[in-house]
Each structure stands twice: as structure tokens, then as C-alpha cells.
Write a structure and sequence with these properties.
mainly beta
Length: about 130
């Protein structure tokens, strides 16, 4: 059974940091591109970062560029989202998602491309 288990969310002050984790089981993690999405109150779902399955090429939304960093550890079957200099606008439910293979140079930002989803975790940034 495929499982994506997320951890690391919580409450943080403006300017603080959090590190989200997404651990996969029931599949060969190294064959999957990973995306991090978020959905804030009254907003649609937005891809904030993604990393490809073989080359590790990354993309970031303009709203988080320079503050967030996506990475992966294929030995631990885990993807990470390091979030620094957090703002109130970053408050949202964050989801990890996996897509098998795909373009190794350009990870997709469309949620319809992804096959498996984590349960989501709340990130709240207080002003």
C-alpha cells in the first residue's frame, strides 16, 4: 500500500523557520518527481516547489523564491521543504505529492500531473 506521511508543520513567528518532511513507502521513491503544494484560506492550491526524479532539477514559485529550499534523500525515501524567513502569507495547509518519472529537467507545477498525495500539514505564521 502506497503511503506518504508528512511531518514538521506547526506554529511559528514571522521571520522564523520550519522544515517539512514527506516520507514515502510502498513504491520506489527514486523514480518519482516530488512537488510541494499549499492551499491558504480562500485560495486555490499552489505549487511552491518541485524536484525531479533523476537529475534533482528544481523549480520555485516566485512568492517563495530565495526563502524556501526543496531537497530529497533517496536512501531515506524522504523529501524536505526548508522554509526560512516565514511570512504571514505563508500560512496554509502544505501537501507533498509524487509523480512517476516525467521530464528530468522541468518538474511540473500542475496538481493534475501528480499521482499520490500526503495527508497535509498545517503551517501557521503569526504576525
Amino acid at each position: 500500500q502506497v503511503q506518504l506521511v508528512q511531518s514538521g508543520g506547526g506554529l511559528v513567528q514571522t521571520g522564523g523557520s520550519l522544515r517539512l518532511s514527506c516520507t514515502a513507502s510502498g513504491l520506489t521513491f527514486s523514480r518519482y518527481t516530488v512537488g510541494w503544494f499549499r492551499q491558504g484560506p480562500g485560495k486555490g492550491r499552489e505549487c511552491v516547489a518541485a524536484i525531479t526524479w533523476t537529475s534533482g532539477a528544481t523549480t520555485y514559485a516566485d512568492s517563495v523564491k530565495g526563502r524556501f529550499d526543496i531537497s530529497r534523500d533517496n536512501v531515506k525515501n524522504t523529501a524536505y521543504l526548508q522554509m526560512d524567513s516565514l511570512k504571514s502569507e505563508d500560512t496554509a495547509v502544505y501537501y507533498c505529492a509524487l509523480k512517476q518519472y516525467g521530464n528530468p529537467l522541468l518538474p511540473p507545477s500542475s496538481e493534475s500531473e501528480y499521482e499520490y498525495w500526503g495527508q497535509g500539514t498545517q503551517v501557521t505564521v503569526s504576525s
